[in-house]
Amino acid sequence: MAISDTKPTPQPPALSVHSPSSHFSFSITAILPTMACPVAHDKQASPPPGHPELTPTPTDTPNGLTTPGFEPNAPASVVPSNEVTLAALLYESGADGRTVDDWPLPEDLDFSRPVSELLRKGTQRAHVAAEHSAGAVALTNGELELQEYIRWLAILWRVYDALERGLDEHATNQTLAPTYNPSLLARAPELAADITYLLPRLPSYVTKPTSPPLKGTEAVPLPPFKLPPFLEEVFVNTPAPLEVYLGRIRDLSRNADLAPRLLAHAYVRYLGDLSGGQVIGARLRKAYGLTGLDGRRFYYFDLLNDTSAAETGEETVGERKKKLNEVKAWYRRGMDEGAGEDEKLKAAEVREANVAFVLNTHLFSLIQPPSDKKLRYFELRDKENERRANLEKPRRTWWRTIQQTVYFFLALLFGLFLTQIAVPFVAPHIAPHYQQHVQPVVDSTIAPWWNDKVSPWWHNHGWPILEKQMAKSRRSFI
User: Fold this and answer.
1) Per the UniProt record, which residue ranges are transmembrane (predicted)?
2) What does the pLDDT profile of the chain (478 residues) look like in tens digits?
3) Beta bridge partners of 2
């Protein structure tokens, strides 16, 4: 991206598209040869009913900023995020063969260049789409409620857990080995540490785990942190953008021939954390009153794994920037070494990186930005009840049914034992002692005090106060 000191270069007409369901608004260059459509239909057929009318409107790039005219290279996605599938993303990208290998690439890419340079240049336009996400803006500005931020960290944990499991499995792969350094890069443990640190800052009724607890599966492994209801839904009802993202990573991890493409997903995630993620980390420190690294370890990288200066707050901005640049330079060298001179592999990495960028853009739609309207207590209650009702209920098994039946009859037998055996046996022994020692004290001390002091005060003061509070509660409810 270049900054022009002269008159801005005129930009081609753009198509303004807004998707209310996904909180995205895009400006798509009109000269793109292949335009995506949110209404599925055959490209050669006439548009079906419901096809949107796209009217060209002139736009100018602000402040003289110009963007290289890549064609078509990851145009902004208009697929609703709650309906996203990999097939839909491939369709709107112009991949006629409906595979990632058919993803269109910029024509001016020179595949003799290092892969780190190709990835940076070949994905530049893919960066633009996320800028219009309300959730991403709130995250970057440190405006998310703490509970929503923790939920976002749990979503990221699932992404990094899947990605880093794949990288671990193929650690000796020729393409992945030069950048394999879990002690430096692994983010899943850091995310778990941040969530564990931040959860106690929420009210106890919010963080109380549900019963019975969830059980992990191979497809949905459970994390090393507690799962209160607002985090449980991230693992029970996996939203579409996250499901597609995880599915793509698993497909690459299961196939040794496709595993080298995990480098593209690692590039998008790790380099993003090392760059724009640092801005978010700095904002969060002030937004949530975080001191040291606790609560924001996700954003900290150090080649020497030395966190002492950051823990004490003695690390300067210059020192921090130097460490980040060292990590980024090391990672780019590793990518270039892993890809070597294989031009076919480099093209596959650029295509996969564009897919990763689009998937991450849709992932941002899962962030729920703070609402300007403050909900009343009964609205919050109804919203929470609705959310709990939508959670998938644990399946009832024969073993669980038998177990509950046995518990019921045991409780019934214990109650019969108390009423029919224990009480009749003990009562004759206790009654004389009560009448001789306890009853005189009650009659001479407690009963007069209760009748003379407590009862009049309740009728004159306590009951009127309770009536006023009940009336006030009824008015507030109405």
Assistant:
1) 406-427
2) 333 333 344 443 333 333 333 333 333 333 333 334 444 444 444 545 544 444 333 333 333 332 232 333 444 567 777 788 888 888 877 776 678 888 888 778 888 999 999 988 877 665 555 555 677 888 888 888 899 999 999 999 999 999 999 999 999 999 999 999 999 999 999 999 999 999 999 988 888 877 777 777 777 888 999 899 899 888 988 899 999 999 999 999 999 999 999 999 999 999 988 888 888 888 888 888 888 788 989 998 887 777 766 666 677 778 888 888 999 999 999 999 999 999 999 999 999 998 998 898 889 889 988 876 666 667 777 888 887 777 766 667 888 889 989 999 999 999 999 889 988 888 888 888 888 888 888 888 898 999 999 999 999 988 998 888 888 877 766 5
3) 66
In whole angstroms, give the CA distance from residue 178 to residue 176. 6
Tokens found for residue 151:
């939920």
Burial 4-31 (b: 16+ CB within 10 A, else e): eeeeeeebeebbebebeebbbbbbbbbe
Half-sphere exposure at residue 128, Cβ-oriented, CA atoms within 13 angstroms: 20
| pTM (two decimals) | 0.63
Domain ranges of the chain: 2-390
Candidates 41, 68, 124, 77; CA nearest to 361 is 77
Complete DSSP assignment for 88-145: HHHHHHT-TTSSGGG----TT--TTS-HHHHHHHHTGGGGSGGGG-HHHHHHHTT-S-
Q: At what angle do helices 276-287 and 262-274 cross, to 10 degrees?
A: 50
- CA angle in degrees (0–180, nearest 5) for 433-436-438: 80
Q: Are 66 and 2 in contact (CB under 8 A)?
A: yes
- What is the fold, at CATH topology level, of the domain defined by 2-390? Heme Oxygenase; Chain A (1.20.910)
Give backbone dihedrals phi and psi of 19, rounded to 5 degrees, phi first: -115, 95
Say if CB 348 and CB 287 are below 8 A apart: no
Cβ within 8 Å of residue 162, ≥6 positions away? 246, 249, 250, 253
| CA angle (267 as vertex; 266, 273 as ends), nearest 5 | 90
Burial code of 433-444, b = ≥16 C-beta within 10 A, e = fewer?
eeeeeeeeeeee
Neighbour-count burial of 351, counting CB atoms closer than 10 A to its CB (0-12 exposed, 13-18 middle, 19+ buried): buried
Which residues partner with 66 through β-bridges? Answer: 2
> By three-state DSSP, how is residue 25 classified?
strand
